[in-house]
Automatic annotation (TrEMBL):
Residues 20-157, 198-336 form the EamA domain. The chain crosses the membrane at residues 20-39, 45-67, 79-102, 108-129, 141-161, 197-216, 228-247, 267-286, 293-313, 319-337. GO terms for molecular function: transmembrane transporter activity. The keyword Transmembrane applies. This is WAT1-related protein. PANTHER family: WAT1-RELATED PROTEIN (PTHR31218). It comes from Lolium multiflorum (Italian ryegrass). It is a multi-pass membrane protein. Keywords: Membrane, Transmembrane, Transmembrane helix. InterPro entries: EamA_dom (IPR000620), EmrE-like (IPR037185), WAT1-related (IPR030184).
Length: 373
């Protein structure tokens, strides 16, 4: 009986990281919906990003202070510069490009699908910055290159091809909306083809901006290993940068006024829930299972957003979006498989290196013993 209870407890314990990652993806999916609703209400892209980061910094700074106040190393000019660049590429540029992409494409599904190009973008940036070499003689290198090309091909397909409409979820949304609003249906004019293509390329550019941030933060994390403090300061730098950018475009109070409306709810949800709740959950999963496990759940957000945006936002889903998203996700898993295989190859090569070192050690030690005798 005790064994059975222990087995059930073990299963539940093992399922906690998966459940946590599903919750994280649901939180981020709802975030896309909130952003779209705020944009539809007329909120400016830059102001929305600035408010989101203000809420996020206001939440994360006290949390970081309380959790890491006793183990935080002193800040150096190098660390502060790295955190400033992290805020610039990972927050300010990335978030402004993403939100502007949602506005131009008028589709959260397109932007969410394209956001899954981050591993491929990171691989390209690592190659260009010579942090990683292209090892085509190994299966891991071939898998990462193939996954990158497949993902980019899916992005191009999603960008330039729409195809027939998938009507099931759209009809469900129209039925729900017609019941809620009588005979009036919430129909939004589709974006111009040029705007949709430009928005798609901005979403792809945001992935490269995010990849640059990952590269910089990896170096910062080596000399400043305080994850909550890094997140808080990056968010704080991003908030200052985004606010200055928004003030350059809009200084009148009308754009900045928040009432008890969707603008306040979207900004608060983005800063407090998406940044405040999802980040600790994701950090816990990273410690438990590692980055590859966390990255595997990324494609879930495409499914969640596609369903939620079709039902809540009355978005039209086309076959081109689905096919492109499938290729992007396939490319993502190829890159993840390549990374996992690369780790296995490093582990397999490690004993060989150790044995070679031992042989060299024996050769160097043996003459010394002969001299002593």
């Amino acid at each position: 009986m005790g064994t059975r209870v222990g087995g059930v407890g073990g299963v539940l314990e093992g399922a906690r990281p998966a459940a946590a990652m599903v919750v994280v993806e649901l939180i981020f999916s709802a975030l896309q919906i909130f952003i779209k609703l705020a944009l539809d209400d007329g909120m400016d892209v830059r102001v929305l990003v600035a408010y989101r980061l203000m809420f996020g910094a206001a939440f994360l700074c006290p949390v970081a202070f309380l959790i890491e106040r006793k183990k935080r190393p002193p800040l150096t000019v190098k660390v502060v510069t790295g955190l400033f660049l992290c805020g610039l590429f990972g927050i300010t540029i990335n978030q402004n490009l993403l939100v502007l992409a949602i506005k131009l494409t008028n589709s959260t599904t397109i932007v969410t699908a394209l956001s899954n190009l981050t591993p491929q973008s990171t691989f390209i940036v690592a190659i260009l910055s010579r942090m990683e070499t292209l090892k085509l003689k190994k299966a891991s290198g071939r898998a990462k290159l193939t996954g990158t090309l497949v993902g980019l091909g899916g992005a191009m397909l999603l960008t330039f091809y729409k195809g027939p409409e998938i009507r099931f979820l759209h009809n469900l949304a129209r039925t729900r909306l017609s019941h809620a609003h009588g005979n009036h249906q919430l129909l939004r004019p589709p974006p111009a083809e040029g705007s949709r293509i430009l928005g798609s390329f901005l979403a792809i550019a945001s992935c490269f901006s995010f990849a640059i941030w990952l590269t910089i933060q990896a170096k910062v994390g080596q000399v400043y290993p305080c994850h909550y403090s890094i997140a808080a300061m990056v968010c704080l730098f991003g908030a200052v940068q985004s606010t200055l950018l928004a003030l350059c475009m809009h200084r009148d109070s009308e754009h900045w006024r928040l009432g008890l409306n969707i603008r306040l709810y979207s900004s608060a949800y983005a800063g407090l829930v998406a940044s405040g709740s999802a980040f600790p959950l994701m950090s816990w999963c990273l410690r438990k299972k590692g980055p590859l496990y966390v990255a595997m759940f990324g494609p879930l957000i495409v499914v969640f957003v596609a369903v939620m945006s079709s039902i809540v936002l009355d978005e039209t889903l086309h076959i081109g979006i689905v096919l492109g998203a499938v290729l992007i996700v396939a490319g993502l898993y190829m890159v993840l498989w390549g990374k996992a295989r690369e780790e296995d190859e490093h582990e397999a090569d490690a004993p060989k290196l150790v044995s070679q070192d031992e042989e060299l050690g024996k050769e160097s030690v043996t003459p010394a013993r002969n001299v002593e005798t």
